[in-house]
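INFO batch 0412 | record 1 of 1 | parsing
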Amino acid sequence: MDPETDTIGSAAADPAAVLPNLPPAGVGASVPAIRGGTVSRRALFERLGRAGRITQVSAPAGSGKTFLLRSWIGAAGLAESTAWVSVQREERNPQRFWVSVLSALQQTAAGSTVVGPLTAAPDLDGWAVVERLLKDLASLQDRLWLVLDDVHELGSAEALRQLELLLMRAPPELRFVLATRHDLRLGLHRLRLEGELTEIRAADLRFTLDEARVLFGAAGVELPESALTLLHARTEGWAAGLRLAALSLAGHPDPERFAAEFSGSERTVAEYLLAEVLERQSREVRRLLLRTSILDRISGELADLLTGGSGGERILQDLEEAGAFVVSLDGRRSWFRYHRLFADLLQLQLRHTEPGELPALHATAAGWYAGHGYPAEAVRHAQAAQDWSLAARLLSDHWVDLDLRGEAATARELLTAFPANVAAADAELTAMMAAAELARGSLEEAERQLALAIQWSASVPADRRGRLEVVLTVLQLYLARQRGDLSAVAVAADRLLAAVDTPDEPQLSLGEDLRALTLISLGIVELWAFRFKDANQHIEQGVALARRIRRPYLELTALAHGAELAALRSYTRGAQQSKQAIDLARQHGWSDEPFVAVAYTVLGGAMVSQGRLAEGERWLGHAAHTLRPDVEPAVGMHLHYARGGLEMARGRHADALAAFHAARQLAETLVTPHTLATPMRAHMLQALVLLGETGRVERSLGELDPHEREGGEMRNTIALLRLVQHDPLGATAALAPVLDGSVRVHLMWVVAAALLEAIARDELGDPVAAERAIERALDLAMPDLVLFPFLIHPVPALLECHARDCAKHAALVAEILSLLPGRHEGPVGVITGRAGGSGRSAPRLAEPLSQGETRVLRYLPTNLSAPEIARELSVSVNTVRTHIRHVCGKLDAHGRTEAVARARALGLLAPSSHAR
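INFO prediction complete | emitting tokens
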């Protein structure tokens, strides 16, 4: 037998064959075993094997405590050295308990020689029995285990005190294992502090999904993964629930349907929970359990309200301690929930015993939740009570609050629970339907629903009309923002700020929330519309206000779009701020929410711009996974633009063009021209140039607005086109206003202009001017590590030549060259064929260079010494010399010069510019 396998119902592993006082196989009372299979419980077996002097296994009924211990004893070969005592139900007789303990000890190999016989007698004193037992055990030489199963049934306080004495004073050779449904008052805290107590609890005993799969397989049940996952979630890994489900599923004609419908009301589960849990409770506790079963989470105050009693919190705490399928949800143990299957059973019993009370219970719960700041729960219970008017008022009152909490999806879910005829006849719900359409990206339908809500708003009672008007204005703001309509956003913003500043408007506590929302929305659209100063002011104000009023959703939104603005000035600052937004999302469990996509997009774009392509691709992948471009077209345009840049940097110009086309389609849906629209069009035209579509590019440039055509982005595009057309003078003429500063443009475009200038000057046979242009490009790129232009206009030969003559940029040049594996000259070489390779794949080394060796190789064409290379790479001189030695060996070269020549021949280094 595998000593790390928990055998299910295997007779060969049954220690009862050796110890007749062991219980039969099973996971608990009334739960049959499944024959013929095994479930690995490696971790639990290991913990039991390493356990201290006392082990407490504490978990609710049916958690598999007894079966685990039986299996471990059999697998570990401990049957002959284990005494097993199953405490009888509601055992209140200390004498009977101690007689069974001594009898079990006497049946073990070690105990039979030291523990004397004991016969029950009317005047038998438990204390005297413990003292005698301690005396007998003093001579114990071999390890002996005493397992007390169902020790929670020991109802005699005197017997518990006697057991505590035995635990405290027993010799180390005697090990105790206590299996119980709840923690015992045995002073075990002292042993916990001394490290002598091992605890295994319900969470440890829960079956994992993999263990559940093996369990069902052992029962001959093959389930689809979705059905298995659903059953595992419904049972919460509870052993008895899984085994009962497996038994019921054996031979079932429709296992998937059974899995979908499986609940605590299923007959075998219900019978088990009734017998083992519910029927053991007092009438008062049963009433509390049934009437609070309608709740997803329960507090003592709410329990008292629903029962009309008192002491609900204490009852719930006691139930949790007793392992009665009650789970605390907070450290203060003031909020609780019921195990899913137990809640199913309680709700079934409530429907049978008090069906007429359900609407009143739900209505009472709705009122309590609404008054205590839990709007979603309030709406759900009003809907369950079928009080649609109350539910509609509650949802409308709290929609803005839910939205600003980042719970807009919850609000939409609540809206779908209204009957269609109710929603269609209510102006406030119609406004919510407009919000739902906005969330789906159906802007035209959202506008139609919004117009209906505005039209019907006059029918809303006067005391609610002010709040509805605010909701309608918020929706108008959202609609305008999604369309990128700066003027419409400004109008809605003015109306919202006026409402916030009007004391007699019934906005209650949402004034500062609405102010923050308005400032952030203004800043976002101002950013897209080139109004960077205003955008920065409004976004910064929005961040500060969101933090002050503790609205993390608003803070995240402002940080993410603030990162978009910061990246226009510095990729490093943009990356830092987007990481702040991403960290905030992670703290609140929002990492996969669509509103985080802008932060992922900014971070991915910044990484691509700094040449960290793999990292950039990862973050852009996160953005694509979370974003719905039809809902946020401006962010979607940014994402496609960044993706196109990534493809360009990798030389995949056709893929880049496809991404830029997708970006252009989204840009065309925006009312106000977006900040990135012109850069995106410029890169799209450059991709076409690199694909050889020069005529098409000429026509497109001719169709542009003159102001856009004269901008820096398009001047770079014209320069690239002229270089491909063998017109370097035309390229320099196009670049001159960008390089002399008379045309203002983002730094990245200036770096690219300097690179294109270097290529043009080199083509004109002016190496001095080419060197000056390369140096300027490197000077501009270095502070913020702007490497993207070097990837789309690769000039490795010019860079190597510069690095040989100037150590100032050696590290940066080496970094750039390391990003150009197998790439040769840029537009001049690749398009005109003047430089680069033949297109044939280079021969490969028999043994590839390591990453460290490759980085050192990049410095070998320079004039830097080994100590200087070491300083540039922040490694030791010995490391550099070792790498040089390995490089020479792998290249079969006898020195640095020969190594460089062989590396160039193999395509590991770009060809020398002197060879041109």
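INFO post-check: The chain has 48 helices and ten strands.
INFO record closed
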